Amino acid sequence: MKAQVVIIGAGAAGMMCAIEAARRGRSVLILDHAKTVGEKIRISGGGRCNFTNLDIQPDRFLSQNPRFALSALKRFTQWDFIAMVDAAGISWHEKTLGQLFCDRSAKDIIAMLLDHMEQVGVRVKLGISVAGVSHNGSSFTVATSSGDIECESLVIASGGKSIPKMGATGFGYQVAEQFGLPIVATRPALVPLTFAEQELEQTRALAGTSVQANVSCNAANFSEGLLFTHRGLSGPSILQISSYWGDGDTLEVNLAASNDVAVELKTMRSETGRISIKNALARIIPEKLASVVVSETGLVGNLADQNNTALDVLAQRVHHWTIKPVGSEGYRTAEVTLGGVDTDVLNAKTMEAKNMQGLYFIGEVVDVTGWLGGYNFQWAWSSGWAAGQAV
Ligand code: FDA
């Protein structure tokens, strides 16, 4: 079997690349070992797919070379993808922080991509396993469970390692290594963080409690929801900070980001001092959390019994809680993989390997990782589109 372009991985990046390449008149075959295309799109955004963000900025992407992603992100922007979504008649809404979601279902995005692929004549082969790829000096051969496929351009769009249960593999990294491309060390990102038993003893009772928090680590900080879990912490602020957190790092957490606890308690004391210090704090933060914080500080009695220093200490504990996670929940639950194919060896305009003509890497397999909030899909669309113009 032959095609001018073979794309391995029918996810967000692979399908966008297939559409663009076939639109240019290239014969395109996209293959995947999964039985259906776009499985991660289907489950994304709680089933509604946070397909892009209105506020695409370079500082929302992590990479050893943060400028690498700019060219593709500027050539195929969030507005270009929104125009595609609008043209398909898919209604959407902004949830928060510029995050755009389908009104109805993530399946609408998959149907849109399938429609485009059909219109431009992309051949789709699913349920195929790839044994390996080789290059004979002029063309590539992809050895698959349904025979060899020869192509001029080979696009690796096989994603990262997150959610192995859904078919994620390290395949793309192996191909990169086979052709001598370096890999920036990979690790799970946008992932819940876990505590050691000692910390869990303090926080286990809080599982299910959520607050609006500000979480900082290594000069990054995020003000979003935080959720206590049976294993540690989750919620958007924690998923975001997980991309910046490394082994041994401490998180600083403001558990009441939109309050001034000392001022509020002192005001309350002058008005209703005859309530317990725990109940007073529970008017500002969730009751279970108030109970844990108050017992940690050792304060007892009513609010009226507390002097300014005691209230300042309590406020300090709420606004500057420090905690050292021991790890993360790993690829099992991570939304993305940090690291990947080193951008230094890829052409930023085309995604082609500098040392191997005809070999392209797009999407999550590349060392470009977005924040939570539609940034990772935008990278998949933009890098897929860029390669689609060049293959
Ligand atoms: P993707 O992983 O989508 O596709 C890779 C494809 O390659 C898969 O279909 C896989 O089966 C195939 N493949 C892998 N190995 C293969 C092999 N050896 N042979 C053949 N095929 C192979 N992002 C965002 O911006 N907004 C959101 O709402 C969400 N939500 C979200 C929820 C959850 C639960 C997860 C896990 C992730 C998200 N993300 C997200 C992240 C987003 O899903 C991710 O960044 C993109 O899907 C990456 O697109 P790619 O096309 O690069 O890889």
TrEMBL record:
Entry annotated with the keyword Flavoprotein: yes
Species classification: Bacteria, Pseudomonadati, Pseudomonadota, Alphaproteobacteria, Rhodobacterales
Record-annotated RsdA/BaiN/AoA(So)-like insert domain positions: 187-336
Name of this chain's protein: Aminoacetone oxidase family FAD-binding enzyme
Record domain RsdA/BaiN/AoA(So)-like Rossmann fold-like: where: 4-389
Source domain of life: Bacteria
Record-linked Pfam families: HI0933_like (PF03486), HI0933_like_1st (PF22780)
Keywords: FAD, Flavoprotein
